Amino acid sequence: MNKIFAAVATLLLSVSVHADPVKDSVALELNFIKRVFDTGYAPTQWKKEHFGFDLQAEYTKSMSLLASKGELSAKDYREIIGGFLKSTRDYHVGVQFYATEGSSLPFTVNSTNGRYFVVYIERDKVSQVVFPVQVGDELVSFGGRPVSDVVAELKNIIGGNVESTDQRLAERYLTKRAAMMNVDCPQGPIDLEFKRADGTVIKRQMAWAYRPEGIEWNPQPDNFKLFASQNQIPRRSFRKPEMTWGMWNEYQTAELADKTAANPFQIGGRQSYVPKLGTVLWESAPTDKLHAYMFKHPNGKIVGYVRMPHYVGGKETFVEWKAIMQRFAGTTDGLIIDQINNPGGSVFYVLALMSVLSTDPIKVPDHEITLWPAMIQENNDLKSKLEAVKDDAGAVAVFGTDSLDGFPINYQFAQSTLDFTRAVAKTWASGKKKTEPLHLYGADRVNPDPQVNYTKPILVLINELDFSGGDFFPAILQDNKRAKTFGQRTSGAGGYVLNVEFPSSLGLASFQFTGSIGRRVDNKPIENLGVTPDIPYEYTVNDFTKNFVDYKNAINTAIAEMM
User: Fold this and answer.
1) What is the pLDDT of residue 250?
2) β pairing state of 484-487 and 535-536
3) Domains within the chain, CATH numbers bracketed
């Protein structure tokens, strides 16, 4: 017992920076987070090669920042923890705090060439009479300051990764703020200045819709505890790997907090801002999970369109996807998949969708995976169960389902997964803590669906707000030469994500880290690089003022050249 107390005392002395128990507790959290990243963060070496990332150096910076502070506020605490995690330049790395404060204004802006245009107005909150601004008007002043200056500040708080993606995120946060996402939440009036195309200036004062903080930051030193060690890293890392933007849950919470109508510019929305591309001949029902339609192209051909808002799907949604593809297979000359503003989701849902898009097996990225004892125990338990599988029924019994988000579980999947578990075990036995690139679970190549295969040309719409699964989906189709991509470069969130929770007296709810690094067919990582479109497109002033007319024409031109 004395040895345990001695070990605890040593750890406290090693991370304590002050006689201030609040700061000591922040130091303990930083130390715990660092140890988790030391143990399980997969892209460390890539980050060092790509931009000189050094985890120890960033930890030292954060500890120095903590030491420089006087009496800590909730904002200080969140900036220190959030800043340390942000240093990874990884969109999978997110942090959630227990906080309810939020602010919003009822409109959304997007920029092009340094100009900011209103692209959406929540008319259920502000009428045309009260707020005569229209979609397409330019926002020139925000709180008496140039809009670009305010956006630059927000970008500095949340960014440091990919410039184009950070810019689009900062534009979202301009009018939608949440303390849980570590941004300031203003209240009271704000002066706004807009300019119409004819030069008319409109000045209005609006009030922030403000939600006060319901969980006050009032740390009590006597309640602070020493935190758990690396065994807090979740054990269920292999069973259903996720590829999702690290701040997705918080973004959803903030977006939906005061919403009554769907915003087509939100991340993960059922319908996007892509305008109808032609005369609609058939359209899915509003109650369907996926928005899809067929339209008559200006050249007379029939084209299918389907919106893929995210990859947080399941078997039911996959069945709907399959039915849409079956309809399109016999009636269309080409297909447009709209996955702009896509936060990602389930690895296996992404792969299931692939199965109906080709008559040939589709190669998917391999992953380098970090390993630690809890994962090895789970891996070995799974390996022993798979070694006893003799048929399809045995495979279903091991996984407890006949499909993972639509991806079929059968004897072949079990054998491929067994190969995976053996490779993991061999790597660990050799003394290594990270695997060579290998197929994730039983997914090396996706075989064609036995019932539905769409074979016509495919154009995938991508942009800067595509994350994780939203990177992998177009990357897979591009690598297999099964589709062309159109739009802007994706964010580059390139692996699967693990979530960590631990008891915090200071308000940290959880954080995420990247447990693998995906490699494309040319062995390049998706992390930080994203998917470069085959057909680049940058939005024009016309797009923001005339319902994306240039964007629409460019999409139709691109698909016409493919059919």
Assistant:
1) 62
2) parallel
3) 102-211 (2.30.42.10), 259-364+448-494+523-562 (3.90.226.10), 366-446 (1.20.920.70)
